[in-house]
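Title: Prediction job returns without error message
Component: structure pipeline
Severity: low
Priority: P3
Assignee: unassigned

Description:
Job completed but the reporter wants confirmation the result is attached to the right record. Sequence as submitted:
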Amino acid sequence: MPISIKMPSLSPTMTEGKLAKWLKKKGDQVLPGDIIAEIETDKATMEIEAVDEGVLFEIKVDEGAENVLVGSTIATIMEENDSENDMMDLEGNGNIEGENNLVSIENKNKNLEFNEKKVTSDLSLDKTSSENRIRISPLAKRLALKNNISYREIKGSGPYGRIVKKDIENYDNLKETFDNNLNNKIDLKKNNFSDVPLSPMRKVIAQRLINSVNEAPHFFLSVDCNISEINKIRNQINSDNLKISVNDFIVKASAKALKNVPKANCSWNDNFIRYYNNFDISVAVAIDDGLITPIVRNAESKGLGEISKEIKDLVDKAKKGNLTPEEYQGGNFTVSNLGMYGIKNFTAIINPPQSMILAIGKAEKKPLIINNEIQISEIMSVTLSCDHRVVDGALGSVWLNKFKSYIENPSLMLI
């Protein structure tokens, strides 16, 4: 039977993506392991790898198409003994949504496969399942996808409510007429703004942070940390071959504080609180298209040199869009540092499903009374955002004081 290649889902939050490039053209021979296309997800550019042998019979989604729905058919492969009747049978079965075919996705820099088992449509499904399906002809479906039309909103005029070609055309014409009438009524000055389409990453960032603000009751705790001792150690150990940053100490101190205050290493679920045994620290990295949080795993047990090298490698891969999902998915706690931009202090939004995030401000030299003497010290302001569903004020304060203790006495991190 012909094989449908579906738009894959690479993360729990992905609902659509961009078909960035076709690497095979219609009529090309395809072998298992051949890369046939590239798709742009909410985090990176990934490759679609063929897992069957055949001929690329049809390309249903044009190169560069955006907002391609997860699960929609983007191409079909004909096997050696397939006939035109087989192709017609495939299209007939494709009239009702509900199939996911086996695909293999490979990251450009590291082999990473995601397989989805095929689920075949069955006309004898129960009534509840039947009510959720959409009847649409293959031609109408291709036309809708080509014009970025959500056919779920369209009422079909064909038999049993089936959506046909004219339904898509009528909907598209009606929308175009409405848009033209609206533009004619509104007198806008030209060239005073530009509209940039939302990238998949920006959509995901927006949705996740809206969910965080709406669902997690945030509260904030702030404290000043004296980093003079950290800078003394940095001046002693840093060389041409080793550059330990203040942020490296912060990541290490965060993990050590979580280990010492295990009740803070948790996340909220609807029916239970999950406590983690690992201490994985997400580090916020600004990139051209938004923000991503690669993870330093088991940071409490790693040396500062190892943490420093790992963060540099992760930041480099993040800026090139080459992070693999296991390098950014997960994490128990996030560090967001804007000190290098001159920001004194700020409050950060929690990265769900985590329960805390630490906002780091710029360090400044200030007079400080130590042992009844005035000394000039380097003071860094930090603010902890907590999810009040699982972290109360007292627990957050205990964690923050433990973090401050590690920062101001960095030798304790070596114990």
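Comment from assignee: result matches the submitted record. The first strand starts at residue 3 and ends at 6.
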